[in-house]
Amino acid sequence: MxxxxxxxxxxxxxxLTADQIHDRVSAMAAQIGSDYAGKVLTVVVLMDGALFFVxxxxxxxxxxxxxxxxxxxxxxxGLESSGQVQxxxxxxxxxxxxxxxxxDDILDTGLTLSALRERLLAxxxxxxxxxxxxxxxxxxxxxxxxxxxxxxxxxxxxxGYGMDYQGRFRNLPCIGILKP
Length: 180
Ligand code: 5GP
Ligand code: MG
Fold this sequence. Notes:
The chain has about 180 residues and is of the alpha/beta class. The chain has one domain (about 20-155): Rossmann fold (3-Layer(aba) Sandwich). About 25% of the residues lie in helices and about 30% in strands. It has helices at about 5-10, 20-35, 50-60, 110-120, and strands at about 10-15, 40-45, 65-75, 85-90, 100-105, 125-135, 150-155, 160, 175-180. It is globular. Magnesium ion binds near residues 46, 49 and 105.
């Protein structure tokens, strides 16, 4: 792939390179594949931030996966969470008796994932686990148990590999911190 030198120059620094991300995502896929061996896994993914994460991860898991995409937002395109989660739940989607893995890009305050977990548990799945690519090390207002985590990062606002700033920079292959 050609290096995206144009948007890379908007970064203050690269936190995780594309190679580091891909190696870690492969390891997570191997772990999840063996943990769910013999089962039909349902993956519920939060769009759009987890777009590339879910795409790279699921194509390396050798199971007949059912994929459900959901929209949930608390950021509304800015840097700060609004404190309220809006979930766009598709009509007629049910998870009763299924082994569900909830996927998101990043665990920050925990607001989004704890709200989603609660909503999913109300569906009576056979099991519910949670996976994120990034876990921000910060005090958490909302408790959210993580079963799979790619990387722990410091409490800084990151972009790239699906994560945006005001709708932009999702297409960066690496993860980095923007210039102020
Ligand atoms: P939480 O509800 O845990 O506070 O926030 C989770 C959501 O906020 C994530 O799914 C992600 O969309 C967004 N978010 C949290 N931290 C960051 C960040 O550093 N960069 C970007 N682009 N989004 C973030
Ligand atoms: Mg998100």
